[in-house]
């Protein structure tokens, strides 16, 4: 099974654009925005479209209903056990596609902010950890609960283990328990907690602020951070130094420094 992702479906994910801020809302509240194959493919296509859209500067990722996402669609997974190969090909496909989605978020040259109300569990928690920033309503809950159903959350740990400490990530996966928003903030999984129902508004406000920065500078900075963060110190500094040299060669850097020295607002190229 190597078919390309299906075209984006507005029935699964809604897109709203406002002054450079793109809000993607998972719109399958009846199944808690489960990351079935169609939902994953729709998100992959949506992020690819955003990557090509010069007007899109920052992305906010939200979920309709009681969850950002409750993770993979277990009914879909279980149904494929009836395939001739007992689901092996489908399971390889969906795990590969899910990894493609998470990496697309990290590789997107624009910041992505998760707005979390309700639950974000398993691959849904992975989605939050893959975003650059996350705002959580105080009633939000996070978990890697796969261990309770005999399916250890190995893939979600790739993202979660890079967002929080190793011991915190392993505790989440080994216990499977629900973590309150305040605990997620202390662990570094989310940036801050806001009153319930305010996560989307706060994420959009943060996105609007970031959207006012140089798009070229944001792209360089995000890429450099993600390239160096897992490297040894000497390699990390070499990567970061090159990124800053590249950044200094950009017109926006010259304009930004000049504006600071001249005590005026900068005029970005894009």
TrEMBL record:
Query: Its Gene Ontology molecular function terms?
Result: hydro-lyase activity
Gene3D superfamilies for this protein: 2-enoyl-CoA Hydratase, Chain A, domain 1, Lyase 2-enoyl-coa Hydratase, Chain A, domain 2
List the GO biological process terms.
fatty acid metabolic process
Query: What SUPFAM superfamilies does this protein map onto?
Result: ClpP/crotonase
Name the UniProt key words of this record, in alphabetical order: Fatty acid metabolism, Lipid metabolism, Transit peptide
Q: Which InterPro entries match?
A: ClpP/crotonase-like_dom_sf, Enoyl-CoA_hydra/iso, Enoyl-CoA_hydra_C, Mitochondrial_ECH-domain
Q: What does this protein do?
A: May play a role in fatty acid biosynthesis and insulin sensitivity.
Protein's recorded name: Enoyl-CoA hydratase domain-containing protein 3, mitochondrial
Organism equals: Roseiarcus fermentans
Source species taxonomy: Bacteria, Pseudomonadati, Pseudomonadota, Alphaproteobacteria, Hyphomicrobiales
